[in-house]
Amino acid sequence: MKFQALAPANYLAGDEVVDLFHPSIKALASSLRAEHGDDVSFARAAFEYARDGVRHSWDVQDPRVTLSASEALRAGVGLCFAKAHLLTALLRSGGIPTALCYQRLSDDGSSFYVHGLVAIHLQGSWHRQDPRGNKPGVDAQFSLTTEQLAWPVATELGEHDYLQLLVNPHPDVVRALRGATDALALCREGLPCHL
């Protein structure tokens, strides 16, 4: 897959959503880095923390809306976007270039929604990882060899991968989350359907 990306060094910056300088993010990243020193082990540990340590809002039917990395960490819950923001902040805090990326998915081929994930730059190339959280039928795993995302796209349903690797979260995603008061209602009727 050919991604549209800037030089990896561009993907180390923070903003108000990928708030990698927040004390809680810095502390967790430092702890994970100390325990898992090399880049691959640290990236795997950060991925597993974001995937398993923060629950997916829909899976646990938690209506709280989180947007920034530190909000997701504090609440322990978030949609795919907030979990991707958390993973991005942790990895960037630990010195690993990490991009935000998206897929356009569908449950039935007639209605669509955007799904958020990340791409990390390790061993000289970009590798997409999906911290959404596993459940029956979803088995996302950290891998630098073969992608194992929550959902591979079904092109026959009109799904597709957005190939642009972003430094900052897409404005449509930020707008949707900032405008929401209930994550479950957002999932039912307010997620962006395209970018």
Entry keywords:
195 residues, alpha+beta, C8orf32 fold, four-stranded antiparallel sheet, two-stranded parallel sheet, globular
Protein described:
The protein has a single domain (8-189), classed as C8orf32 fold (Roll), CATH 3.10.620. Helices cover 35% and strands 16% of the residues. The two termini are 19 Å apart. The protein contains 7 helices and 6 strands. The strands form 2 sheets. A 4-stranded antiparallel sheet has the order 5-4-3-6. The longest helix has 15 residues, at 39-53. The model has no long low-confidence stretch (mean pLDDT 96). The chain has helices at residues 23-35, 39-53, 57-60, 69-75, 80-93, 171-178, 183-189; strands at residues 55-56, 77-78, 98-106, 112-122, 125-129, 160-161. The chain is of the alpha+beta class and 195 residues long.
Concise description?
By secondary structure, the chain is an alpha+beta fold. The protein is 35% helix and 16% strand.
Number of strands: 6
Task: Detail the poorly predicted runs.
Answer: none
**CATH fold call:** C8orf32 fold
Please bin the fraction of helical residues.
Answer: 25-40%
Hey, roughly how much beta strand do the residues contain? 15-25%
